[in-house]
Design brief:
The chain is an alpha/beta fold. The protein has two domains: 167 residues, Rossmann fold (3-Layer(aba) Sandwich); 125 residues, Rossmann fold, CATH 3.40.50.2300. The protein contains eleven helices and twelve strands. α8 links the parallel β8 and β9. α2 crosses α10 and α7 packs across α8.
Length: 367
C-alpha cells in the first residue's frame, strides 16, 4: 500500500496516494523518502514509531463472553409493530443518515415508527423519551446524546418497554440486558487506534497534534480519545499539544481549530473525532494561509461524502468509517428478540478505512 511521507515545515511532502484495506489488515509498503529529509532521519522515525511498521489495525474482534439480554422487558411477536426512535440531533450528515436508515427500514418492515429529535440538547432528549414512553410503543430505539440519558432508559424498562441503544452507550447505572436489550455500535476505541495509525503514516511518526473532541460526555468522544492516545504512545514524536470539545459540528470544529492553531502555530496535524469537525478544521487551516494535506495533515472518523471528497482533493489524509446505517440491524434485532432468540448485550458493527486509494470508489454511495 502506498503512503504519504511527511516531515516538518522545512521538508517537502511526497504527494503519493495512500492505500488502506477496508475492514481487513495488511502491512503497508514504504515508498521512497520524504523530499528534503535524510534517509537516516527517516530510518530513525520508523525505528522510534512502531506504528509505521505495524499493519492497519482493522476492525476489532467480536467481544467475547458477552452476556445475553435475559432480564430486559420482553417483546411479544406480532404482525405489526409500533416502534419509537429518539434521535439526539439532526445537525450533521451522520445523524441525518442514521435517521433516514431507520425510516427506510421501518417502511420496508411495515413498522409504524415515531421519531423525535433532541436537537443536540440532553434535557430535550430526556423529555422526548419520557413522551415516547407515555405512548407505550412496542419497542424504543434510542441514540443517546450523553451518558446521563441512562435515567430514561431505566424509566422505559420500568414501563415494560424494551430498549435498543444505537451507536452510543449510556452510563452503567442502566444495566445491559436488564434495563435495555442491547447496544448496537461501532468500536470507538478501535476507531481511535485506526486514526492514530493513519496519522502516523501521514506524518512519518512525527507530529504536533491538535485534537478536536466530540461532545463532552458522549461515549464516542471518550473512546475515540482513549484509543488514539493509547496508540500514539508507540510514537514518542507524536504529541497532542491541545485538545478541546468541538461538539461534533463543522462550525464549532472550525472555531475551536482556529483558536487552537493560533495558540499553537507549530502544529503539524489535526485529529478530529468526526468528519464534520475535520472539515471545519480544513477551513480554519485555509483561513490561516496554510495548506491542509501539506502544511497540516488531517485525520478523522465517520466516512461522510464531504470527507471522501476532501480525501480526493488531497486535504484530508484518511477517515475511519463509522457507518450510520443502523436501520437493518436495529429491526433485525427487534424481530429476533420478539421471536425469543437470545440477543447479546453488545453488538459491534464492522467499518472501513477510507483514503486516497478508495475514496473515489465509495463517493457515490457515501452519505
Amino acid at each position: 500500500m502506498l503512503r504519504k511521507g511527511f516531515r516538518e515545515a522545512a521538508t517537502l511532502l511526497l504527494l503519493t496516494p495512500l492505500a488502506l484495506v477496508g475492514c481487513s489488515t495488511a502491512t503497508p509498503a514504504a515508498v521512497g523518502s520524504p523530499g528534503a529529509s535524510s534517509a537516516a532521519a527517516t530510518a530513525t522515525a520508523a525505528a522510534d514509531c512502531t506504528l509505521l511498521s505495524a499493519p492497519e489495525p482493522g476492525n476489532s474482534e467480536p467481544p467475547a463472553g458477552v452476556a445475553m439480554a435475559e432480564k430486559a422487558p420482553k417483546l411479544t411477536a406480532k404482525d405489526k409493530y409500533v416502534a419509537a426512535f429518539s434521535q439526539n440531533a439532526s445537525n450533521n450528515p451522520w445523524r441525518l443518515a442514521e435517521t433516514a436508515s431507520m425510516k427506510a427500514e421501518a417502511e420496508k418492515q411495515g413498522v409504524k415508527l415515531t421519531i423525535t429529535d433532541g436537537n443536540n440538547d440532553q434535557a430535550k432528549q430526556i423529555q422526548d423519551v419520557r413522551s415516547l414512553i407515555s405512548q407505550k410503543p412496542d419497542i424504543l430505539f434510542l441514540a443517546p446524546m450523553t451518558d446521563p440519558v441512562a435515567t430514561v432508559v431505566k424509566e422505559a424498562a420500568k414501563a415494560g418497554i424494551p430498549v435498543v441503544l444505537l451507536d452510543r452507550e449510556v452510563d452503567k447505572s442502566a444495566v445491559a440486558g436488564t434495563d435495555y436489550v442491547t447496544v448496537i455500535r461501532s468500536d470507538f476505541v478501535q476507531e481511535g487506534k485506526r486514526a492514530a495509525w493513519a496519522m502516523a503514516k501521514a506524518t512519518n511518526g512525527k507530529a504536533t497534534i491538535i485534537e478536536l473532541e466530540g461532545t463532552t460526555g458522549a461515549s464516542p468522544a471518550n473512546d475515540r480519545k482513549k484509543g488514539f492516545d493509547e496508540a500514539i504512545a508507540a510514537c514518542p514524536d507524536m504529541k497532542v499539544v491541545a485538545s478541546q470539545d468541538g461538539d461534533f459540528t463543522r462550525a464549532k470544529g472550525q472555531q475551536v481549530a482556529e483558536a487552537l492553531l493560533q495558540a499553537h502555530p507549530d502544529a503539524t496535524a489535526v485529529y478530529a473525532h468526526n468528519d464534520e469537525m475535520a472539515l471545519g478544521a480544513i477551513s480554519a487551516i485555509k483561513s490561516m494561509g496554510k495548506t491542509p494535506g501539506k502544511d497540516i495533515m488531517v485525520v478523522s472518523i465517520d466516512g461522510e461524502k464531504d470527507a471522501l471528497q476532501a480525501i480526493i482533493d488531497g486535504e484530508l489524509y484518511a477517515s475511519v468509517e463509522c457507518n450510520p446505517g443502523f436501520g437493518p440491524s436495529a429491526f433485525e434485532v427487534m424481530k429476533k428478540y420478539a421471536a425469543g432468540e437470545k440477543i447479546p448485550t453488545v453488538m459491534i458493527n464492522p467499518d472501513k478505512m477510507y483514503d486516497a486509494s478508495n475514496a473515489k470508489d465509495f463517493l457515490a454511495t457515501a452519505y
